[in-house]
Amino acid sequence: MSERRFDPTTGEWVTFATHRQERTFLPPADSCPLCPDPAGAWDGEIRRPEFDIAVFDNRFPSLRPDPEAPAVAGSELMPVAPARGRCEVVVYSSDHATSLSRVGAGRVRLLLDVWADRYAVLGAEGHAYVLPFENKGEVIGVTLHHPHGQIYAFDEIPPRPLRELSAAARHRAATGRCVECDVVAAEVAGGDRVVAAGERWVAHVPFWARFPYEVRLSPREHLPSFAAVDAAGRDDLAGVLVDVLAGLDALFGFEMPYIMGIFSEPTGGDPAAAGWDGAWSDISHLHLLISPPYRTATKLKYLAGVESMGGAFMTDVAPETAAANLRAAIAREAAAGHASGVGTL
Amino acid sequence: MSERRFDPTTGEWVTFATHRQERTFLPPADSCPLCPDPAGAWDGEIRRPEFDIAVFDNRFPSLRPDPEAPAVAGSELMPVAPARGRCEVVVYSSDHATSLSRVGAGRVRLLLDVWADRYAVLGAEGHAYVLPFENKGEVIGVTLHHPHGQIYAFDEIPPRPLRELSAAARHRAATGRCVECDVVAAEVAGGDRVVAAGERWVAHVPFWARFPYEVRLSPREHLPSFAAVDAAGRDDLAGVLVDVLAGLDALFGFEMPYIMGIFSEPTGGDPAAAGWDGAWSDISHLHLLISPPYRTATKLKYLAGVESMGGAFMTDVAPETAAANLRAAIAREAAAGHASGVGTL
After folding, report:
1. Helix B319-335 to helix B231-252 angle, to the nearest 10 degrees?
2. CB spacing of A154 vs B315 below 8 angstroms
């Protein structure tokens, strides 16, 4: 069973992929499917002795280019559709024990090219939205420890990006400006929530951070996707991202789990779905969001009743305090040579 | 620090309550703040030898009736507001070791009156939305094991209920009907996702269930809130709810953690915020949603990158299978005298 079903009480689609119950779950390190397996000794995914970054289709995909027909009959009220799309795995290193925060700026820089390349390829395949993301840490629910991210290509714009695009459309209609441009300008002017800033990219703890140590990375310029970020911009982001990840790891003295998402211009769909009558690029400002689940060194932020049922986030750390703590952690790492020390403004 | 901050990139408010970092965290059973503490021996909340249900203000509230002024200056782009509202605790029993699934139908019936009463009182205080909910189980993040729920009264309609109301408004505008009425009628006609059904209430696993064993309970009739549910309707719901909770506990052989929310007609705010030009009651159909986090007896469903960053849920159990499993669990419990055996249609 592999299909999408429509929830008419929210207007959102939910995907069902029952074969995923059997997916690989925390395999031992000597049979990791993401480690180099040149001879196919344990049916690994990558038949090479080593690699820098590897991208391939997820063996247990929720979305497929040629999905089977839905198993259930839908209705006008509750339609059903094939679970069309793509699920890719992006392995960051052939070293099982490293992490994105430790692979180094060169590898991070290469990853930006990979994201840009997959965005172009998957967009050209006709998918409406390309979402690279990373789940890191067992508390997040990762089932494979080998450092990797994923890319989902959706045939419709998923709910959260669509809500952001809709808010951007309202802001643009009201002010004539891009909301992310305005936020970045305000943060650069204020400075107390900025944690790392290059010439072209700024990382800050949002004024409204839903997770205490959430960090948002945005280009200062209005660039809709990595397709518009040139080599200098990618170099700059690599430095900022390395510093943010180093700071997160240094913050509590352990490697920080997180969820990271990259939000780009849709590659399909009608801007009217976001209430916009212009081009997607008018209201799309590329940004990365990193949400770590810890609120102290020992306490997790859970999405319980208020967040889950209300959609209303309650947070108990001031973003200005979180940003100051992160800046201090990055400064310590930079002094020890573990961060680029891009700086803050 | 206690304030609400606006996120212009989504149009949602986030609440900050830094004093909550110090809230009580899994206290030992002999100093449980929710146990009867008639002599005030450990500064408990309830100075009585026993009680049926107790309701009082949360000692560590995120929202308060008379909040302090915001600590930070907002702007037109990112406004800030006092964190006004109410946070109440609803203790289900003086017995520390019981749970809502085991207090019995009489106590559940009383809880429905409590929800109705608090809805009326908090609505009359001028709050825009009253959200009763329960977080159950350490995997959900509960900090107190004593069986209890909570009620938040918000001064604006929180994001998730507002999304449901907006979808209901679109459906009503397109069809002239209530979407929840249509869903309930379709489920009653189909039957394969219904898990328990009384004369007036129906519990079913939604066609689009985001969590595998999610259960939605709705009155068959278009009733906007508990204010409109008469004594017979409350009796009926008590039986259905007891059966659903008994079935969830029996499903995997351990007491099922869950998040439960009760969605009612807003008590304030302008229906125009949901795109509706009539009354809230036109598009508000009372319902309860119970979301357990387990997808198998040993595996949790995590809200990782796709869900958290995309807002797109991926599920690996067919709702029809989940409903059949829950029906069988309820039938076993009813045969053993642990469920009311309200039945299914």
Report:
1. 100
2. no
Q: CA of A51, closest CA in chain B: separation in Å? A: 25
Question: What pLDDT score was predicted for residue B20?
Answer: 65
Domain ranges of chain B: 2-16+25-335
The verdict on A237 touching B (C-beta cutoff 8 Å) is: no
3-state secondary structure at position A274: helix
B209 interaction partners in chain A (CB closer than 8 Å): 14
Angstrom distance (rounded) from CA A217 to CA A224: 13
**Element holding A154 (H helix, E strand):** strand A148-154
Class of the domain covering A26-59+84-335: alpha beta
Structure tokens at B212: 């595998």
Other C-beta atoms closer than 10 Å to the C-beta of A73 total: 8
Q: Is residue A51 classed exposed, middle or buried when 0-12, 13-18 and 19+ CB atoms within 10 A define those classes?
A: exposed
Residues forming a β-bridge with B84: B64
Q: Do residues B87 and B241 lie in contact, with contact meaning Cβ atoms separated by under 8 Å?
A: no
Three-class secondary structure of residue B282 per DSSP: helix
Provide the H-helix boundaries in A5-146: 105-124
In chain B, the residue whose alpha carbon lies closest to the alpha carbon of A320 is B72
ipTM of the complex, rounded to two decimals = 0.95
Pairing type for strands A54-57 and A12-17 reads unpaired
Enumerate long-range contacts of A279-283, CB under 8 Å, 24 or more apart.
Answer: A280/A165, A280/A224, A281/A224, A282/A172, A282/A178, A283/A165, A283/A168, A283/A169, A283/A172, A283/A178
Q: Closest Cα of chain A to B224: distance in Å?
A: 15
The one-digit pLDDT tens for each residue of chain A (345 residues) are: 889 999 999 999 999 998 766 667 777 778 899 999 999 999 999 999 999 999 999 998 999 999 999 989 999 999 999 999 999 999 999 999 999 999 999 999 999 999 999 999 999 999 999 999 999 998 888 888 999 999 999 999 999 999 999 999 999 999 999 999 999 999 999 999 999 999 999 999 999 999 999 999 999 999 999 999 999 999 999 999 999 999 999 999 999 999 999 999 999 999 999 999 999 999 999 999 999 999 999 999 888 899 999 999 999 999 999 999 999 999 999 998 888 877 776
Q: In this complex, do A314 and B62 lie within 8 Å of one another by their Cβ atoms?
A: yes
Q: Which residues of B touch A306 (CB under 8 A)?
A: 62, 131, 133, 152, 158
CATH value of B2-16+25-335 in 3.90.980.10, 3.30.428.10, 3.30.460.10, 3.40.50.2300: 3.30.428.10
Provide the whole-model pTM: 0.95
Of B16, B311, B317, nearest to A315 by CB-CB distance is B16
Tokens of B281: 């009651």
Give the mean pLDDT of B84-99: 97
Do A152 and B304 make contact, defined as CB atoms within 8 angstroms?
Answer: no
Going by their DSSP bridges, the two strands B85-91 and B148-154 should be labelled as: antiparallel
The Cα–Cα gap between B311 and B291 comes to 16
pLDDT value at position A339?
A: 84
Active site residue A148: yes
* Closest Cα in chain A, distance from residue B17 (Å): 5
- Say how far apart CA A132 and CA A130 lie, in whole Å: 7
C-alpha closest to that of B184 among B130, B134, B107, B240: B240
